[in-house]
Amino acid sequence: MDPIKPAKVVKEALDKAVEKVADLVTPPVPGVPGSEPPRLDPPTEPRGPLPRKPDQASPQTRSATGAETGAGHEVREQRGEFLTTSAGLRLHDTDHSLKAGERGPTLLQDHHLREKITHFDHERIPERVVHARGAGVHGVFVGYGNAEQVCRAAFLKQGETTPVFVRFSTVVGSRGSADTVRDTRGFATKFYTSEGNFDLVGNNIPVFFIQDGIKFPDIIHAAKPHPDREIPQAQSAHDTFWDFVSQHTEATHHVLWHMSDRGVPRSYRTMEGFGVHTFRLVNAEGKTSLAKFHWKPKLGVHSLLWEEAQLIAGVDPDFHRRDLFDAIESGAFPQWELGIQVFPDTPEQTFEGIDLLDPTKIVPEELAPVQPIGMLTLNRNTTNYFAETEQVAFHVGHLVPGIDVTDDPLLHARLFSYIDTQLSRLGGPNFNQIPVNRPHAPVNDMLRDGFHQHAVHSGVAPYKPNSLDGGCPFTAGADMSAYVEVAAPVAAAVKQRKSPASFADHFSQPRMFYRSLSPLEREHVVRAFTFELGKCYEQAIKERQLRVLANVDAELCARVAEGLGLPAPEPTVPVEEVTTSPALSQVGRVWPPDGRMIGIVVDADDPDSLDGLHTLRQTITAANMVPLVIAARGGALEEGLVAQRTFLTARSVEFDAILLAAAPPPAPDALPSRDAKAGAPAATVDPRVVLMVQEAYRHAKVIGAWGSARTALVEAGCTPGEPGVVVGENPADVFARVSELLAAHRVWERFPVSVG
């Protein structure tokens, strides 16, 4: 078929959608917990609940059947000035239970105690078995209109603005695990379209560990903590994971992505997203195509270094969700283009020899370019995590006219599993009536009763056919936006538990992926395998995985084997040459540095270090970045200038670049007994500042300094003028150069790699 012609961004429609939040009052530093600062003395005068923060919103106030109510978001929020029971009864005391005398037993008649404790005992619902730890936000999607020749879905029409809710997540860890663990990330998007909800439930890796959904419990049981000790949490660096994937070689492609930098993203804002499966698209004339969905971040694809990810897991386990929420609150709204790879819908369902029904395979972008079809902008944080992020229910079976499933065996298992999971987690079949899940299209489903039924159904005939309700609801035709499955032929076949022969190649695509990476990225893959396998106890598992790597790439196998102190085995299958895909590499391009965190080290006792700081902060903010001033102590440094971090509370990993306005001497608390980061007292510069610069340096981050701050560079062992170490006479010149370097994310040339 003819390729889709790329369209320009529908700027007018997107601007209109973003206008709704354009007047937000953005605080200088995001993350303030309340919408008003508290007073020193406890409040005593009754008043109503405070308003939401300007960056927050909740789901649209739709009825349980999808109708617009016309009410504002506040109708779901707490009301009134006084404490009440859940039935609205005002209470005069909530600190003391009702007793028989001051020291007597508590009375069973205390209805307030019983309600308060009973509700508390039932506050939690089962966490997700996978993707338990997540962060959700609201946004809008604007279609470009150029997909209409292959897909009739209304939300893809030119200028069509569709509200969305997006949930990012890790896969293996529990709700209390850390954000920066090595793991696959979920990227699930709920489109509230005019034709019903469409859920694009994908990951930040385009392939999966398994080809058939029947094996999903196996891979998850293997990746989860060991059942005897419930450790390690949120990690793949343990024996059961590698025991499984070393024998289950169809996982090899995903494992390579998992061990690459994609396993430790810098931010949710700098992740790609993939629908993983191949879907069938249908246009208005009924013509079908096969397609894969891609999310391309406008900020580029960037990752953490492994040491950095480990440090962050301890320093700030909420790093990714904080980064997302703070960027939105700051007005640096994350954006992704939705794109599709389109293939002819042939009986074989293959493209250039690649089986499109195999979820462990990709189609290189050089063979089938990703064609942009719309823009996603995330612009509102949630008002309540539980009500929205924890209760949002995604389902790959939430489809709209123009999008159908294929015979991918993993996709078919997901079609069953997702709805089955919601029944357990959300207490019954009416989970789509929870506000965050309610469609924006009319609902007349004839489904009745059940737990948590919010609709009040009228009529007496919830069945078809009926005459007592006048025949309503009626079925619709395809010309009335009805969903009609594609009449795809089903081949006559014998029932059997087998996979097609085309699923049997487990090594050529992992080889393509590895050889498409830059030398630097390949170095990181080697380190990741060496680290992960080095954490395993069983020697046989290490040796078995080396056999797998030998079938992927001899150099990769040899270097990992060397790190493990083991001999490199010979391959057991022919290792053929592959055509590389440069699109798989993350490095070598430049991207907008929006939302980056810039740490500025000052000396509060040196007025010269504060010169030009107001202007510098304004310049950084105007560049869509967030400046944080770091000093020996918190509080006001001078009028209008506050230190948001101290040498005690700051750590290099929360910053994308460090600017040194001074070389501050050791502060009074620069003692190991007060702050372990202080180490041995430094001669001239506070040791916490030296450590911060050293960490930023070895993590290939940009460092800038001016004036006397050069002393801090020297004490940290950094040579002014080497790659990414910028010096100058004034803040403006230094930051201009730092900003240019940030576009490449890191200064990779600081540490040359000689891998072939």
Q: What would your notes on this structure say?
A:
The chain contains 18 helices and 21 strands. The longest helix is centred in the middle third of the chain and has 17 residues. A hairpin with a 5-residue loop joins strand 7 and strand 8. Among the domains are: 295 residues, Beta Barrel (Catalase HpII,  Chain A, domain 1), CATH 2.40.180; 154 residues, Rossmann fold (3-Layer(aba) Sandwich). The strands form 4 sheets. Strands 1, 2, 3, 4, 5, 6, 7, 8, 9, 12 and 13 form an 11-stranded mixed beta sheet that branches. Strands 18-15-14-19-20-21 form a 6-stranded parallel beta sheet, sandwiched between helices. The chain is an alpha/beta fold and 756 residues long. It catalyses: 2 H2O2 = O2 + 2 H2O. It is an enzyme of class 1 (oxidoreductase). Keywords: Heme, Hydrogen peroxide, Iron, Metal-binding, Oxidoreductase, Peroxidase.
User: What is the annotated CATH architecture of the domain at 139-433?
Assistant: Beta Barrel
Low-confidence stretches: 1-11, 17-27
* Overall body shape: globular
Assigned CATH superfamily of the domain at 139-433: Catalase core domain
Helix content: 10-25%
Straight-line distance between termini: 39 Å
Q: Major beta sheet, specifics?
A: 11 strands, mixed
Instruction: Report the top-level CATH class of the domain at 139-433.
Output: Mainly Beta
Estimate what percentage of residues fall within beta strands. 15-25%
Structural class: alpha/beta
From the alpha-carbon coordinates, what is the Rg to the nearest angstrom? 28 Å
| Mean pLDDT reading | 92
DSSP E strands, number: 21
Tally of alpha and pi helices = 18
Looking at the structure, the CATH topology of the domain at 139-433 is Catalase HpII,  Chain A, domain 1
